[in-house]
Amino acid sequence: MELLNWIQNWFYKQCNGDWEHENRISITTIDNPGWHVAINLLETELEKKIMKLVKFERSEDDWFFCKVENGVFSGAGGPMNLQEILQIFYNWAKSQEVTDFNEKSK
């Protein structure tokens, strides 16, 4: 729950009467089956932060990738990988390097 609380707080901190009126965070399902997470970073402190592609393929149902492109954090993964996608966003937002997560996941 700590991860979810952090994301809720991050969202709330971005709300300024204008930012939140756009589709800023979406969590949807995909037909693989799996998840897709999109977090619009425009007008946030993360807008210009660079992120390397993070990609893991453990099995047909256990996979995910995350990237930042055109001001949007985008992550997709298998049906049980939603928490890992959100953890990647958290780790990236809190640090300069995504490698912290990669090293722990090996």
What would you note in describing this structure?
By secondary structure, the chain is an alpha+beta fold. The chain has one domain (2-105). The protein is 31% helix and 28% strand. It has helices at 2-14, 82-94, 99-105, and strands at residues 25-30, 34-40, 54-57, 63-69, 72-77. It has a five-stranded antiparallel beta sheet, with helices on one face. The longest helix is centred in the N-terminal third of the chain and has 13 residues, at 2-14. The chain starts with a helix and ends with a helix.
What labels would you give this structure?
106 residues, alpha+beta, five-stranded antiparallel β-sheet
What's this model, at a glance?
By secondary structure, the chain is α+β, with helices and mostly antiparallel strands. It is built from three helices and five strands; from the N terminus they run αβββββαα. The protein has one domain.
Uncertain runs with pLDDT below 50, 5 residues or more? 97-106
Oligomer kind: single chain
Task: Output mean pLDDT.
Answer: 89
Quote the distance from N terminus to C terminus: 23 Å
Q: Helical region count?
A: 3
Kindly name the structural category. alpha+beta
Rg result: 14 Å
Helix content: 25-40%
What is the fold's blueprint, element by element?
Elements: H1 2-14, E1 25-30, E2 34-40, E3 54-57, E4 63-69, E5 72-77, H2 82-94, H3 99-105
